[in-house]
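Take a protein:
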Amino acid sequence: MIVIKLGGSVITDKRTEGKIRKRIIDRLIWEIKKSGEKFSIVHGAGSFGHIPAERYQLHRGLKERSQLEGFHLTHHSVRLLNSEVMKVLLKYHIPSVSISPLCFIEMRDRRIESIDLSKFDKALSMGLTPVSFGDVVFDSKRGFSICSGDDIVLHLALHFKPDKVVFIMDEDGIFDRDPKKYRNAKFLKDVRVDDLPSAEKSSYIDVTGGMRKKIDIIKRIANDGIDVYVVNGNKIGRVYGVLTGKKVKRTRVIGC
């Protein structure tokens, strides 16, 4: 089994609230289907979640009642995005089930306090593809917090011990420093955990923590002995190549 993260930066236009990239989603799901692999999918919130969550400062927790409208709007928006992903899965005859983080995750002070993955176990045992996503969830200390799709990927990886974890992004992979800021940034093709950059500076820090947090999560997965791949979803055929073991441009973080 493979755990796949569909990055919000790939499946939406993160500069425009609620703008979906339907053709990209369609092609990515087709490449995933074509690979013939069994998988679990988590997708990011992109402009459907990050923009309203930032506007209402949801990452600060519940501070004033006006944020409740932001909670409603953010959750509703990411559900709309999830619905689009589910439509494409159905189009390609991939029986799937959407599992909202609100149903299986509780946080405390921005950290996951409890997580119940039994619905994922049940779905996979029945032959259904579980699909989850980044969203706002309840927090026992702050009222609510943002739970990123990357957080969910981490727990799925540690629970299922998949053959590999694949992060589909809008970059070719991981560089030694931010390629959007430094032209001479070095691309990392195959890299061990200890050689990953710290990502102290990233081109886009959003309400879920940006690239800094992603690299930290990738390290934790790889340290559990699971290979992690980072691949550009905007490039045709690369996701299919990673899923089937073909030679394509990507970063492989070697599990140890």
Remarks:
- The chain has nine helices and 14 strands.
- Residues 11 and 22 are 7 Å apart (CA to CA).
